[in-house]
Amino acid sequence: MIYPQLHFTGQVWRPPYEAGSQLLQITSGCTWHKCKFCSLYHGTQFRMSPLSEVEEDLKVIRQWQPRARRVYLTGANPFALSYNKLMDVAFLLRKYLPHLVSFGMFARVTDIAPKSVEELKNLRHMKLDSINIGIETAHNETLDRMNKGYHASDILAQLSKLDEAGIRYNVFYLNGLGGKGNGEASAIATADVLNQLHPCIINIVSLTIFPESQLYQEVINGTYVEEPEIERLMEMR
């Protein structure tokens, strides 16, 4: 017997607390692809799944998981899609999965900016209840050095909109990203921002530098010195 397959391309991952969720590809790759430390989507060009492809996958899911209650949309940052396209996806989810309770996805801070609070509320009404965001840090010097494409003020402004819209969000903090001597400054700057917000979960991940990343070359040529383990522990504390 040949089983139908879903359209998954490139690197696919989800947070550990989405282990029980049905995965559905909406995008593959990342829209930004400029963060110096990142190698996760190395070699994968950004691609948005056509709605026809999404609908095909939902037909398979309806066949094999007809009572699916939670769906996690995969891709580095599917929230980069426009409000109208996200609403189209939400309507398809409702059409094919009548038992759906909620869905979630990854986002960049900049993906939130084009969407109004009213639009975010509409998406929440369509059962988008959580977003995972890799803010990495709110230390502006580090954000600039790592080419994140936003500043601490953007984190505060955009995540405040999620608070107002009633959409839960989990943030990822990248411990050690500032490099040797910058751990305390990064921690304090990030705490200052997050204390003004209401994240559901603060995930702390320690930086690992892979050879495919641009930052690896800076380590090799000595322009970036990794934060020692003791400093990372102090930063996290």
Structural notes for this entry:
This protein is an alpha/beta fold and 237 residues long. The protein has one domain (16-236): TIM Barrel (Alpha-Beta Barrel), CATH 3.20.20.70. Helix content is 38%, strand content 18%. The protein contains 9 helices and 8 strands. The strands form 2 sheets. The chain has a 6-stranded parallel beta sheet with strand order 1-4-5-6-7-8. The longest helix is centred in the N-terminal third of the chain and has 14 residues, at 51-64. The chain starts with 21 loop residues before the first strand and ends with a helix. The model has no long low-confidence stretch (mean pLDDT 97).
Describe the secondary structure blueprint for this structure.
Blueprint: E1 22-25, E2 27-28, E3 47-48, H1 51-64, E4 70-74, H2 83-96, E5 102-107, H3 109-112, H4 117-125, E6 128-136, H5 140-145, H6 152-165, E7 168-175, H7 183-194, E8 201-206, H8 214-221, H9 229-236
Parallel strand pairs: 1-4, 4-5, 5-6, 6-7, 7-8
Antiparallel strand pairs: 2-3
Helix pairs in contact: 1-2, 2-4, 4-6, 6-7, 7-9
